[in-house]
């Protein structure tokens, strides 16, 4: 049975969601504030965290960020009344796998829960043939989540790792900002922000600045390409 931690301070909403998830065969634990949620998340092995943002004690953004540092593989679904684009970008930027705005149709929540858990299960069973990706002297290990450049360990955040992984999977192909937004941040439209540029610059500083050859290139008016030139 798949286990879910629901961190939601509205008791009525939390109990209704928990009841619905239980009816669908999930085992659900409820935390009513961020501190309790952190304690439960760090002391138990859950298959998914459903996380509100405006929580007493510790807000959802900070809690998600902490959980990502401890367990990058744990899927997090943010469920919140904050529906502005900036809120979604922030939530996905701190490591959430998906973002659903209240009020919502429970059928959509169930679909997103199943998708988050399914993706996590697939990541837990990687294809060994594709486990390690190497471009020039840059190596990314998808199982250990490690990155090396000239045998030097490169420390990346979760979102930086996912962005680099996507670029390396498509070595030599120019990838648009919209495609990166869709596949890395899972937002199916242009956010109108510079979040992609910001994270590409983060990657360049860590992966390219002190090494040769340069691998991450801008294609003006089109997007970005990772290749040896």
C-alpha Rg (nearest Å):
19 Å
Tally of helical runs: 8
Structural class by secondary-structure content: alpha/beta
The CATH class of the largest domain turns out to be: Alpha Beta
What CATH calls the topology of the largest domain is Rossmann fold
Instruction: State the separation between the terminal residues, measured CA to CA.
Output: 50 Å
Order of helices and strands: EHEHEHEHEHEEEEHHHEE
Provide the number of structural domains: 2
Mean pLDDT: 88
How many individual β-strands?
11
As laid out across the biggest beta sheet, the strand order is 2-1-3-4-5
Tell me the name of the CATH homologous superfamily of the largest domain: Response regulator
Main sheet: strands, sense, barrel: 5 strands, parallel
Please state the overall shape, judged from the principal axes of the Cα atoms: elongated
Helix content class: 40-55%
Which CATH-level-2 architecture of the largest domain? 3-Layer(aba) Sandwich
Uncertain runs with pLDDT below 50, 5 residues or more? none
Share of β-strand residues: 15-25%
Modified residues (4-aspartylphosphate): 52
Organism: Spirosoma radiotolerans
GO biological process, one term: regulation of DNA-templated transcription
Keywords: DNA-binding, Phosphoprotein, Transcription, Transcription regulation, Two-component regulatory system
